[in-house]
Amino acid sequence: MVKQHSKPPPFPTKEEILAFIGDKPGEIGTREIARAFHLKNDRRAELKRVLRELADEDRVETKRKKLHHPGALPSVTLADITGRDTDGELIATPTEWDEDAHGPVPNIRILTPRKPRPGEVAGVGDRALLRVEETGEDGVRYSGRVIKIIDKAKVRALGIFRALPGGGGRLLPVDKKQLGKELSIAPGATKDAQDGDLVAVSVAPHSRLGLAAARVEERLGSIKSERAVSIIAIHAHDIPHVFPVAVEAEAHAARPADLSNREDWRKIALVTIDPVDAKDHDDAVHAAPDPDPDNPGGHIVTVAIADVAHYVRPGSALDREAQKRGNSVYFPDRVVPMLPERISNDLCSLRTGENRAALAVQMIIGRDGRKRSHTFHRVLMRSAAKLNYVQAQAAIGGRTDEVTETLVDNVLKPLYAAYETLKKARDSRGPLDLDLPERKILLKADGTVDRVITPERLESHRLIEEFMILANVAAAETLEAARTPLIYRVHDEPSLEKVEALRQFMATLHISVPKGGAMRAEQFNRILTQVKGQDVEKLVNEVVLRSQSQAEYAAENYGHFGLNLRRYAHFTSPIRRYADLIVHRGLVRAQKFGADGLPESQDVAALTEISAQISASERRAMKAERETNDRLIAHHLADRIGATFEGRISGVTRAGLFVKLDDTGADGFIPARTIGNEYFRYEEAMHAMVGNRSGETHRLGDHVTVKLVEAAPVAGALRFELLSEGRVMTGAQRRPSDRPGGARPESRREKPFRGKKPYRGKRHR
Prior knowledge:
The protein is α+β, with helices and mostly antiparallel strands. It has six domains: 14-68, Arc Repressor Mutant, subunit A; 76-151, CATH 2.40.50; 157-224, CATH 2.40.50.700; 245-435 and 446-484, no CATH class; 493-548; 641-742, CATH 2.40.50.140. The chain contains 17 helices and 34 strands. The strands form ten sheets. It has a five-stranded mixed barrel with strand order 3-4-5-7-6. A five-stranded mixed β-barrel has the order 8-9-10-12-11. Mean pLDDT is 85; it is low at 732-764.
């Protein structure tokens, strides 16, 4: 009897696929669609082709390797509660939303539980983590339930108190957006604040006439003090900086670990290599040739990380405070640590010659630079030496000192030999290779700026970075294999909108970018290689950076685009990042190293919430660090009004040009109304301002000469006047003006200088 083959189901139409995606809350993947329509083998390849077409048509959007309708919110969203509707229900909007790509910001109606738990009661002005779903209603597309309140509404403003002769005073805001909006403080509402004090005030409701009234609630110190600038950032962003008594008590009660349930690695010559001014040392490295005859030319690479999980137990006061802080925050004059000094600078700092608990990974590397295998160990180690990057590089180059002269042959040369091998695999992998050196501010003893430097990028930096990346990958692989939940470090691929914008911009430089949707890291690298050494090199690096998504933490894995890695987790800095502590606990649980591992209660759902919270903490820290640098530089330049500087255009908007100075890296603004003697229009695709009559063009990355005309040190804002002329475009390049004669429109009014800065990405891997 001949067996009858069942006829495969018909292939779904695009409309059927779109309807399926729309019916499912949140985001779904290709696998779910294929399963729903019974598509197998070669038909899945056809499905992927159709989905690419839908993405190119902007009918679906890809994020985190998942599909959803363009502009749809993820199921867990960080949002700001902005007000109430006519029924009194709270309304929120997503904290991050791209209006250019997705249209108007959607509203989320907050559903109030009948018996709310602590942390679920939200109010206007709060920032909260929400679980959202589409409702399909007109006006309010989403409903959401509060998972956790991240930040309570600010009931105060910060500023500098300026005393008036007859009593009372004025408040000068420290927020750039509030420049020019002073507050009035009555004589009985000063709380004995002195002229020049940084104060927190409560703001009273006011009418449109006169200045708003405020009352001093707290004196935070004199603006003339050495550390005033970082104090402003700490209070402006509500960064927790004082440890509760219970947290300090737990830290001081902690005792050094011993050999119980640990391997004794104290004879392995592990060394720390850090910046010269590092205060804590939480990672150590070692390398040796692999004696295995089956791995000729291979190496054994070891990375040992301070065992923070041993001291910071789940649910403890230390743990709760660390999660609240999310990460350490670094300012030029101080560090706001995630953990008390007893933990970060003592018990978990891998000091030379002292026994320290560590979680270590030993990796077998082939001669091609690829990792063959790895194992994790819970150990007691003893650092053989504390080195800095410059010191290690000098020693390997033949310039040794008292510390390194005995380490060159048996420690440093094996490390560099292993790194040379690892570079082969790195070059083959092809991570995104942006060249954007970061500046460092050096302070004088009084807390003012001494100078700004760009530290040289040494091979010792790259060595440690490559070792840490390798260890982070090993951690993610181990936890995935054990099916243990973890927090990934993820970096999404650039959106199709940003890729298209990049393609249009590169065309203005006569550089072609292939069409066809998404781009791979290697394609970006080809562009960067093509402009190496040219005048437009910095410009192209900046534009490529701006086309990238922002790295974040997530409990689901969608890979790391910038590093070109399928799976990646932060494992190497648990002293300063809560995500790394979660990964350490996961490894303790997966490897059965002890009872202090990841609790069973912290499943994927719980880690999703933590991921959103610590991603927000990271962005908060980045903004606070950036604003502090701006204020320090503005103070440094405040007495140089009228001086001229060389710089580059670092941002272009309709409002004007942003310029970064060459010598200090200071950022300042040139209002569009002050450029030339004609109307300059904003050309988004070109990242340029173009004169309507002359075609004179000022473009992102152009070298310019500017004069400093205004400085607002407390807000960190600078205003420049443009002295140099732009390039003149040819007739073929100029777009016909929609304003006859290029006349300046009457609606362009002079506005107060607010010093607002464009978004600046940062390479946080």
